[in-house]
Design brief:
The chain is of the alpha/beta class. 42% of the residues lie in helices and 23% in strands. The protein is built from 5 helices and 5 strands.
């Protein structure tokens, strides 16, 4: 089985490092990183990832706005939006932004891999 390719998007380099460490598994590999919504859109078109991990809170274009553009430009790519505010991690936000799932960042490390597997149709 080939690894699913993941684009990691967060404006903090330290968070991208943590996510890269978490994502690099038997099932997933990081194919690229982006520090902004604009960069995520450009890299998604260039790299054709299977999954995009997208930070909600970024300067300039936030993750929700980025997700709406990604849905139109790379419609088949799965998107997981993550947020610091657990109160925002709900199905209404997912529906409004067109993402596949919303995950709260605090403590998300444990939940994120299972969520990634679920979104990609891999066994959890």
């Amino acid at each position: 089985m080939s690894k699913k390719r993941v684009l990691v998007t967060d404006d903090h380099a330290s968070i991208r490092v943590v996510l890269r460490g978490l994502v690099e598994t038997e099932e997933f590999t990081v194919c690229g990183e982006a520090a902004s919504g604009d960069e995520a859109i450009a890299k998604a078109k260039e790299l054709a990832p299977d999954l995009i991990l997208l930070d909600f809170s970024m300067p300039g274009m936030n993750g929700a706005e980025t997700a709406k553009i990604l849905r139109k430009s790379v419609p088949l790519v799965r998107i997981i939006l993550f947020t610091m505010g657990e109160e925002f991690a709900n199905e209404a936000l997912a529906a409004a932004t067109g993402v596949d799932r919303v995950v709260a960042k605090p403590g998300a490390a444990y939940e994120l891999l299972d969520c990634m597997r679920s979104v990609m149709g891999l066994s959890v």
